[in-house]
Design brief:
Layout (H helix, E strand, L loop, with lengths): L2 H7 L13 H11 L11 E5 L2 H7 L10 E7 L5 H24 L3 E5 L5 H7 L6 E9 L22
Antiparallel strand pairs: 1-2, 2-4, 3-4
Helix pairs in contact: 2-4
C-alpha cells in the first residue's frame, strides 16, 4: 500500500467487528501519529482512553459503531488565538496520521466531533481552554463504505498574481 493509496482508500468506519485491538497496535498507531508536524515541537495532543462508564454517558447515537476502543483526542491551550489554532491544526494532522496507521493495519476509525460540545466536555472532564478535536471509535471494520466522490481539485485552485 502506497501512502497515496492509504490516503485515498481510508474511509470513515461506522460499523465495527467486536474483535479487540491489541494495546501494542494501538500504541504503535498513536506513536506513528506523533510524527505529525507541530510548531515549535510543542506536541499539543493528549489522548483520553474512554472506559465503559464514560462511553455510556456520552450516549453517542450509534455507540461509535460498536468500536472496541474509544479515544478522545484533545489539543492543549495556548497563549493566543493564533497559537490555539496552530495546536488544533497539529492535532488534526495527528488524527489523520493515526487513521492512516490504523488503516494500514486493516483497522478503521470513526471520527466524531461530539466531544467539544459543552455537555460532552464535562463528561470527559476536559479542562478549560483544551479543545476536543475528536472522539474516535477504533476497531476492525465490519463494513467499509464506498468512497464519496470529491470535487475536482482544479475547481479549488485560485491563482494569485
Ligand atoms: C473534524 C471532523 C469531524 C467529524 N465529525 C463527524 C461526526 O461528528 N459524525 C460523523 O458521522 N462523521 C464525522 N466526521 C467524518 C466525516 O463525516 C467523513 O470524513 C466524511 O463523510 C468523508 O468520509 P470518509 O472519511 O470516509 O472519506 C468528521 C470528520 C472530521 C474531519
Amino acid at each position: 500500500m502506497t501512502i497515496t493509496e492509504a490516503i485515498k482508500n481510508r474511509r470513515t468506519i461506522k460499523a465495527f467487528k467486536p474483535d479487540s485491538i491489541s494495546e501494542d497496535d494501538l500504541l504503535s498507531w498513536l506513536e506513528a501519529a506523533s510524527y505529525a508536524p507541530n510548531h515549535r515541537l510543542n506536541e499539543p495532543w493528549g489522548i483520553l482512553v474512554i472506559g465503559p462508564e464514560t462511553r455510556s454517558k456520552l450516549n453517542h447515537k450509534k455507540d461509535f459503531g460498536g468500536a472496541p476502543v474509544v479515544l478522545a483526542i484533545v489539543s492543549k491551550p495556548a497563549g493566543t488565538p493564533f497559537e490555539r489554532d496552530e495546536n488544533i491544526m497539529a492535532v488534526s494532522c495527528f488524527v489523520q496520521n493515526f487513521m492512516l496507521a490504523a488503516h494500514e493495519a486493516g483497522a478503521g476509525v470513526y471520527w466524531s466531533s461530539m466531544g467539544n460540545l459543552p455537555q460532552n466536555r464535562e463528561i470527559l472532564g476536559v479542562e478549560q481552554d483544551y479543545d476536543v478535536v475528536g472522539v474516535l471509535g477504533v476497531g476492525y471494520p465490519a463494513e467499509v463504505p464506498a468512497a464519496k466522490p470529491r470535487t475536482p481539485i482544479s475547481s479549488k485552485i485560485t491563482h494569485l498574481a
